[in-house]
Model the fold of this input.
Amino acid sequence: MSLRMTISCLGLAVCLLLSGCSSANETDEVAYIVAIGVDSLPNKQLNITYMIAIPRVLSTSGGSGDVDSRKSVATITIKAPSLAEGRSLLSSSIARSPDLSHIKVWVVGEELAKRGLGDLVSPIFRFREFRGSMYMMVVRGTAQEFLKTNHPSLEVLPSRWVEGILLSGNETSYLLPTNIHEFYNRLKSTSGAPYVVLAGINPLSGQDKPSAKPTSPERSSEYLPENIPRTGGNPASVLGTAVFKRDKLAGMLTNEETRMVAILMGKFPKGFLTIADPKMSERNVHVLLRLGKSPKINVGFENKRPVINIDVLIEGEITSIPSGINYEGLDSRKSLETQVSKAIKMQMVAMLKHTQELGTDVVNFGRYYRPAFNTYDEVASFNWNDLYPEAEINVQISTKIRRTGLMFKTMPIRG
Amino acid sequence: MSYQPGRMGIAEGMALVFIMLFPRIFLTTPANAIAAVTTAAWWVVIVSGLPVILAIFAWIYIFRQTPGDLFSVSEKLLGRVGAWLVTVAAIMVFFIDAALVLRQFAENTLLTALPQVEFSFIVGWYTLIAALGALLGLEALARGTYLLFPMSVMGLILVLLLLAPYYDVYNLTPWRGYGLLASLQTGILQSGINISGLILVIVSPAMQNIQTFKWASIFGVTSGLFIKSLTLFIFTMVFGVATASEKTLPFFEMSRLVYINRYFQRIEALFIILWVIGGLLGISLGLYMGTFLITRLLKLPALQPLIPLSAYIVAQMAMVPPDIATVIRLDNYLISHFYTATLFIITLVLLIAAFVKSKKRRLQHVSSYDN
Done:
C-alpha cells in the first residue's frame, strides 16, 4: 500500500513539475502580436504588417500618467510569399519569439480581398496559434496604412480599441462584428455569403461624402467608414460591411444597409432612427429602435422562382419630438409608427436590391429553406446563391411605439 | 488466487463503463461521425448504442444460465478452444483500442499544448501514468473515475452552453442526413465504437449481483451516449457540416471558440487537463482489462507483474502508425469492421450457446423426472 502511494505521489509530482518546463519561454522572450494586416503585392507576395504590444510601456502607465497609444505598440511590415515565411522573417528583427495566439484582429487590405481570401484563411484554421474567435476586418485601402494610422485617443492599446469598437457595434448596429469562425463557416456553407466588418481611414477633413443621400422619411445619409464627415479623433473608422462572393470581395454595404442586415439576422439590439416628423415634415423625430421579436422569414418557390416573405416587428421608444406634437397619444402615435415602418421598409428593400445585384445573400435566407429537403445531398446540390438574385422578396414591417421616454405628454411651447 | 478484486456497486460500475466511452468525445470521432452521416450524427450516435444495450440484456440472460466472467462463461459454453478465441478477440479489442487512443491523445497533446516535446516522450509518459493506474487496481480506477465523473460532465456541458451565441439550428437540417436508411445502416455499422460498454462482462463477478451489473452497464452506456449525442448536437449547430468534418479536435475547437466578454475567453487550457485525465483513465482501464484477460487465459497467478510488459506492448503498438491521419483512418476502419464484428459475433454465439444449453438442461430435467 505505501509503495503504491509513494509511486503515485512521485508520478504526480514529476508530472506537475515537468509539465511547464518543456518548451517554456519567459514573458520577455515572447513578442505578443496583437494585430496582423495583410495586403497583396505583385508576384504573389504579401505585405504583412505585425502590430506588436510593448508590455514594458503598459506596466509603467499606471504610475507615470497617460501612455500614448503610439508608444504602446511597435508596427513592423514584412514582404513575404506566405504568412509562415513572414513569421520566420519577423524573428530576424525582433529579439523575441513571435506569438500569434494573442492576435485580436486580422486586417485585410481591399486589394487582397478582391483577389480572394481562400489562401489566407486556410492556414488560419490549421495552425494551432490561431483561433476562430479572432476578429476580421476588410479595410478600404491598405491594411498597413490602417494599422499605422490607428491611434486611439481613449485606449492605450490599439487592439483594445478594436475589441471595444466591435463590441460597441451593438449600440448602433452600423457594423456587424465578424470573427474568422463566422467568415469561414459562410465560406463552406451551402448558402449565405461571407461577410466581414468594413474599416477605413478617415481624412478628418470634415467633408461630407455620403454614399447615398437620405431617402424620405429617413433623414440620415448613408456612409462608408472613410466618408463620415468628422474632424478630430482616431483616423481609423469601422463602419459598414464588406460582402463576399465565395472568397472574393463583391461589394460593400453602408451603415444603414448593415443595420437592415442586422435586423434581418436578428442581431439588432438597438439603434437610433431620425425620421421626418409625420405632421410637420420640416422637423425630425428621433426614435430608439429595437427588435420586438426575431424576424419571421419564410422561403418558398413559385414557378421555380424563390419567394421570400419577411415579417419584422420593431419596437420603439420616442427620444425626441422637436415639433411638440403629442405623439404619445394613441392617434398620433399610429402615424408615427407608420412613418417608422415606412422608413425601415424603404431602407430594407433598397438593401435587399443591392445584395441581389451583387449576387450575395448576406442575410442567408437560403438556410430557411433547408428543412424542406429530405437529405443532405439535396442541400449540397442546391445552388441557392445562383437563385437568390432572381428571388421575389416581400417585406412587411410593423412598428410599435412602446415607450415615450421620461415624458408621457408634450405640452406646446408658448410665447 | 482470486480473480474477484472487490464487490462493486452501481456507481462504480457505471463510472467504469462511462470512462471507457467518454474519451472518444475529445478525439476526432465527432468529426468522423459528421463526415459519415452529416446532420444525422447526433441521433445516429444513439442508434449505434442500441446494439450494445441489447447485448447487455443478452449477457444478463447468459449470466443467469452460466454465471462467471467472460472467460469462464465462454469455457463452459464453447469449450476451451472457443474460450480462447473469444478471450483473444477481447484482448485484441482492448489493447488495440488502448493503443490507438493513447496515440491520438499523445498527438493531440503535441498539437495543442506541447508542440516541441519529443513524441516518444509523451507516449512513454502517458503509458507510465496509465500503467500506474492499472497497477493500483480496478477499484481504485473505478473510484477515481467516479470522483472525476461529475466534474468532467459538468465541464463539458459548460463549454457546450457557453457556445450559445454561435448556435444555428438550421445547421441541423435536414435531420435525416444522407437518408434515414443510410443513417441507420451507418449507426449499426459503427456500433463497435461502444463495445467498451460491455467492460463489466469481463469482471462481472466483481459486481454485487446481476442487477448491479445490469443497471451499471445500462446507466453507463446511456449516459455515455447522451453526452456524445449532446456534444454532436451542439458541434453540428455551431460549425455546420462542412466545417465540422474538417476538425481534428472538435472539443478543443469548441472550447477555443468560447468568448463571452473580455474577461471570459481563452478557456481551452482548463479543458486540456480535463481530457488528458479522462483519456488516461480510459487507457489505464483498457490496459487493465486486456492484462486481466491474459492472466485468465493463461491461468497466471498474478496480474500486476504483467502490467509493465503490457504497457510497453501497448506503447509500441501506439507508435507503429506513421502519422496521425493513418491513426484516424485505422481507428475508423477497426471500429466499423473489427469491433462491430466482435460485438455481434461474440454476443450472438454465446447467447445461442446459452440458449441451447438451457434447453438441453430443461430436457434432461424433464426426462430425469419422467424416469
Notes: Chain B touches chain A through 38 residues (CB under 8 Å). Residues 259 and 265 of chain B are 5 Å apart (CA to CA).
